[in-house]
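Researcher: Next entry in the queue.
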Amino acid sequence: MKKKSKVSERPSGVLSKVEKTAWGVSGSSENILQNTTNIMANPILNIGLGVSPVLVSVALTVPRIWDAFTDPLMGRISDNFKSRFGRRRPFILSGGILTGLAFALIWMLPRGWGEMATFGLFMAYMLIFYTCFTVFIVPYLALGFEMSPDYNERTTLMSYRSFFSLVGGIIMQWIYWGCTRPCFDDTVQGMKVVGSLIGGLVIVTSVVTALFCKERAPQIKKEEPVRKLSFYESFSVAWKVKPFIQVVGVCVLIIVGQLSIMQLGMYLNIYYVCQGSQEIAGRLQGIIGTGYTLSSLFIIPAVVWSSNRFGKKVVLRGLMLMGTAGSLLSWVLIDPNHPYLQIVGLFLGGPAVTGLWIVAPSMIADVCDWDEWKNGLRREGAFGAAYGWFTKIGSSASVMVSGLVLVLTGFNVELGSDQAQSTILGMRVLIAVVPAATFLGAYLLLRNYGIDARLIEKIRLDKK
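Model: Structure for this entry, 464 residues:
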């Protein structure tokens, strides 16, 4: 009697650990690339090179708007691309290598230039970086949406990405500390070295994803002609799909709530909690960020189990309530006398954000199946691009607002730790209220979301 192959014994839609790890590992790079510029731009350009926070926000925002419009184009290219290596992997490989090199380039800023010259060069570097990042991230997300047709396996796959994303988060929390090491003249020089190391990490992870992941071919009936998506269709498809808008709306709300006040948290720690010491603040940021990440790591198995047991919608709404509570607690937890007390609130806020990035992409993969069932087209690239467009427009607006908010609170870098009491009070109120409001809004937005495990199973059966 012939032995059954391992492949045949594996349930339909279940991926190997190698495939899930290979796809998930680029989640570390994705997290670092998405957030490091937001975290480090002001410490390097404002504190290190004397560029106004408003100009820094503009330099961060304009490339993101450009990126938001290149995403749909990349989604169309990837959906319609044909090669012996698949639709996604060639772009993941080439885009990942280019993105790693471009990220290192961002921080190669010369000293002695005027404010506007430094601003212009940084924005040019950012435009190059985000163009390369689009080539990588849109096919990468689309690949994750299509790797498995199984409702629960998708959540498991996204948990691998979240795990590695959190590993990237740990690295990211220590970047500022690394730039303040005595071996560097200042943080500007330190970021040149650290940025180059991160660029190398991005290249390595993208190569692993491209080499070890497999693509699932679109399920097209023989009698149905293959129709290519127009650019307009790739760009506009999401506006017509209500479940997609609900899930992405949740993501955008949380992005706005986190990014719009991100700079306030770092500045509060530097100039309020640590009395102006960048070195102490860097260490504090690293320790608090690591605590945030470790608390998030522990939630991953619980999110996967509870999503399979109770459904993705129920779990995601519960996570949003956790985030609301954690944000409001920051009012009493940011205290110069007890600097590490901040970690307590992160045990609620951290898992809430991490759970979101496990469950929401899995829900979008379900939306792709639902859309194919309704419209007869398999278009993960279009949804991936639309997802990127919405989230990047949200993050662009948030980054722009963050610089303006910093100025409007009355912050003045020349005052150091002698900031006005009204400035500190305004920062503390915003850090507590803004994220809480967006978490609560996300909870309400999911109220009528209708795709569940039973519907996805019905769709699978109808396809056979």
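Model: The first helix runs from residue 6 to 9.
Researcher: Noted, moving on.
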